[in-house]
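in:
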């Protein structure tokens, strides 16, 4: 390994090592890798969402099937072509991915699958105009993709932890309700006009359901205290409810079943 390549890999490694926040650094990795290789770099999720992007300064986007802003989705057919690539492909003809290269300009592309234990998590895509990627460039690309994979796994782990936290929160809140309050809460959730948000009149709903208003109020107050609901009184117009933790629906159905 050349000294230059070693320095470059260390620079990428520092991004991961120095990250003390919960923020996943796809954009920083793309910028670091793209700046060193004078290339455009993108990290795309399995569903085609752009997680990180760096466009080589002054260079045009390769095609309108790509996107240049985080959170946007690339063309579904392009993403399918990415997902069909199961191993690293270097200096591939961009025409095979559906792009129309600029006339008279050589375009080199690298597609690197992001996978873990047989599960495809996404794709790292690099391209540049003018010259192909060298062996050292490709080694750097693959090292960068390994760092992307680690960040991807951290992101997935964080999402799983958040889902587990919400599930536990919803289970505890559901267990705090009496049988009558669970039944009342079921009526309330069914009455919300927009699914997870809406305004209800508790006295009217209680009469329609043949229950007392206090049961409805107690159920709402308990779930508000548990941060399952956001509640805003609108006086004579009723009470506006926003479900902050949708997992409560499943636990209420399980209790009622």
């Amino acid at each position: 390994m050349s000294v230059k390549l070693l320095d470059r890999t260390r620079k990428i490694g520092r991004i991961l090592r120095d990250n003390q926040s919960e923020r996943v650094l796809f954009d920083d990795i793309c910028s670091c890798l793209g700046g060193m290789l004078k290339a455009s770099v993108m990290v795309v999720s399995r569903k085609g969402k752009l997680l990180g992007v760096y466009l080589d300064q002054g260079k045009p986007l390769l095609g309108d099937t790509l996107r240049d802003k985080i959170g946007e989705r690339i063309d579904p057919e392009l993403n399918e072509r990415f997902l069909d690539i199961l191993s690293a492909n270097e200096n591939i003809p961009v025409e095979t991915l559906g792009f129309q290269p600029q006339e008279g300009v050589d375009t080199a592309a690298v597609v690197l699958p992001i996978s873990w234990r047989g599960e495809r998590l996404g794709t790292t895509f690099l391209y540049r105009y003018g010259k192909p990627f060298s062996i050292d460039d490709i080694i750097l690309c693959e090292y960068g993709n390994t760092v992307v994979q680690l960040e991807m796994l951290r992101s997935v782990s964080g999402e799983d932890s958040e889902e587990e936290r919400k599930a536990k929160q919803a289970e505890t809140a559901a267990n705090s309700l009496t049988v009558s309050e669970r039944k009342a809460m079921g009526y309330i959730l069914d009455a919300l006009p927009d699914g997870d948000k809406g305004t209800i009149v508790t006295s009217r709903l209680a009469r329609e359901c043949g229950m007392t208003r206090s049961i409805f109020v107690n159920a709402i107050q308990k779930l508000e205290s548990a941060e399952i609901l956001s509640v805003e009184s609108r006086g004579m117009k009723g009470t506006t409810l926003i479900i902050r933790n949708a997992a409560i629906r499943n636990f209420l159905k399980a209790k009622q079943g």
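note: Strands lie at 40-45, 50-54, 89-92, 107-116, 119-129, 197-200, 229-233, 239-243.
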